[in-house]
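We close this part of the discussion by returning to an individual protein. Part of our work consisted of pairing the sequence of a single chain with a tokenised description of its backbone. The amino acid sequence and the backbone structure tokens for this protein are reproduced below.
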Amino acid sequence: MATIKYSISGNNELANIYIRLRNGRTTDIKIPTGYVIDPKFWSVKLGKVKDTAINSDKINSDFKLEKMKLFIFDKLNEEKNHEDIEINKDWLYEKIKEFLNPNLYVKNDLFVDLVKEYQNAMKVKINPKTNRLTAPTTIRNFNTTIMRLGKFETHTNKKLRIADINLKFHSEFIEYERNVLELSQNSISKDIKQIKTICIDAKDRGYKINEQVLTKKFNAPIEPTLFVTITEEEIKRIKLFKGSDYLENARDWLIIGCWTGCRVNDLMKLTKSNIFKTTNGREFIRYVQSKTNKQVDIPIHQDIKDILIRLGDFPRPISDQRFNEWIKLVCKDEKVKMNDLVHGSKQNKETHKKEVGTFEKWELIRSHTCRRSFATNHYHKLQNKVIMAVTGHATEKMLLNYIGETENEHIEDFINAWDKSLSNN
């Protein structure tokens, strides 16, 4: 248990008042408080200003010393569970300075500023799961949340502070994003998750947060992601596409994407320098995922070999925007025939908002379709761990969620075993 006592040093007209902090068996610190007093007004036995001191300045000094003691006790209680904080002489000096000059230690508790601080800190933060720096794409994702929080502040005409992030804010912010910004449930859920992460980080850094943020009620359920994939039969038809040079270039990238599972930013970086050979002479593609910094090796499919032989290299790289735009035109072509009606979602070009409905399949094709198609087309053909080695998913559950499957293989195992048992009877 911590104890705090005061004493003075010297018999001059003005003696320094010292504070002594004992905290457990290892901490015993004594430093000057910055206050002085005439020794005749000090009780050595009680360690305080004498009760008989009638001078108002002496009474006021005693009041300040008591407030300092309570302040330091509060700081001890706030920081006792932080393993990275050492209670030593420097710590005590800092707390006394904070007590004497509170205006110099006022923390910026504006919430949007805290989000920006967290985002900047992520640039040098090591991910404990991967032991690597945070991916740039993950850092950029916070820009959208910052922008939406700014719009919410304008809408409510109020600057958000960390203490304002509670269940009332939770309800109002979700309602605003849903009804005013007209965002999808998944977009809202992503914002809420990031807001909660910021609050937890702020608490770890000594900010006082509303504990409602830590409850299960402070969340936003996600909805199943709607997506389409390109089948192997459709890939065969895509290979038949003929058109303008820029569309044929996009066609080749689309085929390569479906057989490599690359994210588009990694896909467009592929060159002949990414081709390696195994010890037995088999060629494969090796690249490092920009998102996870993980090395991926994938054999070269015959469709990719045909493109490399024809071009002598990988196709010309193009922007994400052009790739998304042009592969739709490829899939819309009469020879490709991806015009069957399917349920899905796409972004409205005018409002930039996601729309859910029934569309011709080519309208829903985008760069990420390549990656999902790779995973889906190889599911049940290869072991999940083999697919995961290419897609980079850490767990089978993540892979199954990604391709929209459920863990129900055990059902087939039971049925097969029972059918076999019945046939033997």
